[in-house]
Amino acid sequence: MNSRYHKALKPVWQFLNQPLFSRQQPAILDPRRFWCSYRIQHLERCLDKAYRPEEHYRS
User: Fold this and answer.
1) How high is the pLDDT of residue 52?
2) CA–CA distance from 48 to each of 15, 21, 31, 43, 55 (Å)?
3) Domain ranges within the chain, ordered by starting residue
4) What single-letter DSSP state applies at residue 46?
5) Segment 29-50, tens digit of pLDDT
6) Taking all residues of the chain, what is their mean pLDDT, rounded to a whole number?
7) For residues 34 and 28, is the Cβ–Cβ distance under 8 A?
8) pTM higher than 0.90 for the full model?
9) Among positive and negative, which fits the CA dihedral 11, 15, 17, 22?
10) How far is CA 10 from CA 3, 13, 26, 51, in A?
């Protein structure tokens, strides 16, 4: 329950704390559009990580 709460809270926190007057990263004020952008960025971060399946089986 606690981890599900934190997973849901992180995007909300990032939406509320985004820089408003930044030229490098413009603010997204529409929550739905921000959620789509957040999911894309999260997927890109996951794909950038090195995938090492053999580490799971090592002791």
Assistant:
1) 67
2) 23, 28, 25, 9, 17
3) 2-57
4) H
5) 999 999 999 999 989 988 888 7
6) 82
7) yes
8) no
9) positive
10) 11, 5, 19, 24
